[in-house]
Amino acid sequence: MICLDTNVIYHFLFETELTSASEKIIREAIIEGMAIPMIVYNELLYTTGAKIARIKYGVKGKYSFRRHIAKHGFPEEAIERVSGFIRDFKVAVIRDYQNPDELVETINAYRLAPNDAQIVLTCKHRGIETLATFDEDFKRVPWLKVIP
Questions:
Q1: How far is CA 134 from CA 24, 58, 59, in A?
Q2: In angstroms, rounded to a whole number, what is the distance separating the alpha carbons of residues 50 and 84?
Q3: Which residues contact 25 (CB under 8 A, 6 or more apart)?
């Protein structure tokens, strides 16, 4: 099983300079199976929603996006894109491992942001040894294989 980070899926869903790399990662990961922790699902919904709101409605910045959601609701297209990706590629959405003390230990031990530490802990406790990400910070975790 390979864990996908938010950025790999984002660059797959939207045309960017990393789209072809994301496509290659996903084609290879299909063989082993793919999973995302709930925190990645959450990040993916937010970043996809913000991108769609920026493209379609000119919304810029997180506070403008929050006001847009309050007035118009969360962009349904974002939910459809994310749900479609998960369904079409048979991605397992797994519960985050939650232990506050271990989260802080992981943040400090590997110098990670809290969400990244949460992903690391979830992989560790779910027996997932490979993470597909474009984020170099995860390479500081010695037991985690980071691809590409």
A1: 13, 27, 26
A2: 18
A3: 4, 8, 132, 147, 148
Contacts of 18 (CB under 8 A, 6+ apart): 7, 11, 134
CATH superfamily of 2-147: 5'-nuclease (3.40.50.1010)
Rounded Cα–Cα distance for residues 85 and 82 (Å): 5
Q: Whole-structure pTM over 0.85, yes or no?
A: yes
Q: In angstroms, rounded to a whole number, what is the distance separating the alpha carbons of residues 148 and 35?
A: 16
Tell me which residue has tokens 């474009």. 134
- Each residue of 31-83: pLDDT tens digit? 899 999 999 999 999 999 999 999 999 999 889 999 999 999 999 999 999 99
> Domain ranges in the chain?
2-147
